[in-house]
Amino acid sequence: MSATQTPNQAPPQRRWIDEVEHPAAQARARRVPAGQAIATVFLALTVAWLLNSESVLRKGEGMDPGVTRTLVLAAAQPINSFAQNVGLAAPRSALDAALGHQSYVASNTALETGDDSILNTPVAAPSASSTARNKPAHHAQSVLYPQDVGGVTKIHPPTVSHPLKVLVTGDSLSTYPGDQLANLGNDKLKVVVKPFNGTGLTTPGSFNWQVAAQNLVRDIHPDAVMLIMGANDGWDMTHDGATLDWATPSWQREYARRIAVVMQTFLSGGVDRVYYGGPPTSPAANYQRIFASINAAGAQAAAAIPGARWVDLYNGTSDHGRYSRSEVYHGQRLDARQGDGLHWSYDGSVLPASLLLQALEREYGPLAKR
Known about the structure:
Blueprint: H1 17-20, H2 23-27, H3 34-51, H4 53-61, H5 67-86, H6 90-98, H7 110-113, E1 143-144, E2 164-170, H8 175-184, E3 189-195, H9 209-220, E4 224-228, E5 237-239, E6 242-244, H10 249-268, E7 273-277, H11 285-304, E8 308-311, H12 313-316, E9 326-329, E10 332-335, H13 350-364
Parallel strand pairs: 2-3, 2-4, 4-7, 7-8
Antiparallel strand pairs: 1-8, 5-6, 9-10
Helix pairs in contact: 4-5, 8-13, 9-10, 10-11
């Protein structure tokens, strides 16, 4: 007991500085109004979206078809356009450059601004539906090989010591077929799979496939390229100041021009051959029409570019052009699609992979495991 404390006195109450005297402790007593907190969070999210609008748009494009995807893209597309126009995307681009990340965004490229003279060719391209009208599915005859006119790189047969290096790329449709192509191939075939989910040719402002082709050739040095895409491209396009409705012939021709530009970019970079495969059939009638148009555009583009080929995955993985969830491969019935009804399942991806392999073998010789 202290000298100043009497027996009837209670001990003095301890006073903790962090509870009583420290300013931060006193600040805890103040409350932020709910409206102000909501406004702060909204402002922070808006700023983050503006500074990273390209990634938000790509995420939206990669979503499964539905109301959520429609709403996200309805908001993301104008926000991304605004951010690009006022330079808000520059900090993110500068950071990516500083960290050594690849940039797949560019403006005023041939993919956006070129004319359609690249499609001028005497070779007639069949429609997506006509190629398999009188032919069973899964046959290599659904590969379009136009009469090449000059400028085609001579192919050297691959060997075990110098295998054919094939890059399989595109949107999310390319992933499993690329993996299965590697499984089907022998030691003369080396497969590199590099997908870019949620990308396409109708929105080069968020992902420019001409730039991607340049980067991929420089970094991977493939002998041949398998380009599989189109699932994210059911959107109107703008070209030369005009808006092209997806259901019109002008849209299909512009899409063919963009495929041709990407094909030519790969070939100009030193690739021997480039093969394009479009999206498969869809259970939804509107997507069925879109994908048929995209595949017809792919055939038209391949016919125009020496060294380019079109592989008919639309009919080749369907029930004679009709949508089917299952397919027969080598006598075995496979569940060919994922739950969204669009993407090939891993097992079902052996179907498009076999068509890709047959297309390669037609020019490079035997590449399948025996």
